Amino acid sequence: MKNLKAWGWVPSLFFAEGLPYVAVMTVSAIMYKKLGVSNAALAYYTAWLYLPWVIKPLWSPFVDLIKNKRWWIVSMQLLMGGGLAGIAYSIPTTFFFQTSLAFFWLLAFSSATHDIAADGFYLLGLKREEQAFFIGIRNMFYRFAVLTGQGSLIMLAGMFESYTGRIPYAWSIIFLILAFMMLGAGLWHRHILPKPAEDEQKLVGGVRFILREFGRTFVSFFQKEGVCPALIFMLTFRLGESQLVKMNSPFLLDSENAGGLALATEQLGLANTSGMIALVLGGISGGIVISKCGGLKSWLWPMTLALFLPNLVYLYMSIARPESLWTICACVSVEQLGYGFGFTAYVMFMMLFAEGKYKTSHYAICTAFMALGMMLPGMASGWIQEQIGYVQFFIWVILCGLPVFGILPFLKINTPIKMNE
Description:
The chain has 16 helices and no strands. The protein is mainly alpha-helical. The longest helix is centred in the C-terminal third of the chain and has 42 residues.
């Protein structure tokens, strides 16, 4: 509480970290659906946008070597503001899909680079006890950014669609708002971010040293005990969810003739908001039971089931076609509550697996495999849905959740290492 200046930059920094991510991963798919892009095309091309997060460990050492993290944070936020403005101005054009995708790629690489710098700066700008105090604050504001992006801004887009009668211009306004938010964040952080002495230091040895150390880090990761079951687990844990997340919004928006629920854009925003609140509650609950009720070993199977079983609500909605918005919001919330609860086990496993000499780099490699596990199945999800319809697609999603149960008995779960060890 004594570091009052940290209250000026920690919340805003991690809000600015979450906002472009949700724009790339969620808002882009909803926008393309509203602009008439097919499910196959929007799923394929937006899934490719995971690539920068898959390969970001390859250039993360150079963020340490070139300039400092403060410079990277401000520069990337200003660049992302420009990229969001580019998306806004490209939407009403004839070649909006190709042009906006190019700006989304710029946004994705900038956002992944910003993640590296922001996460590193958090460790440099705060003392150890302050890091522990602000960990909940940073996570809350990151989630608040996600809630803003896929909830409030989607509802606002629906209001603009109704008011203007022109869908492209409505979405242009939304991305202009996002652009001004990111540009404002860049100017704010240029002023408010501290200048820790450690951030001015460069790694000794230059590029050759960095490449040699990266090679050692990468090789040591694949020498860890139980690495093969761990990699299979990381790639299959969200095999069903990676496809569901690409098609849930198109399903809710699609017409009844296409097998969807025909929600208006603002109704989708409300459903996303209720789901996001449930997601946060699920994540908090997951963290509590792991820390207080027996650890990950005791909760790995229940949490995996919690991620798997709630996907049944989408199968129910595709068959029953509920007309009540509150019923739909309740179903979305149930799925997100289970996802938030179950995903906690996934994150905890990666943290424990990464423990050791190179834990920071090894955790980054784990998150790269996590992103790869989302990218590859997500690319095919739209095509699969178009071939078999929504009911069969959600059955397929449920079946894709089964393989991970075969790998759970083979996982080696490390005992957490204490902070002072």
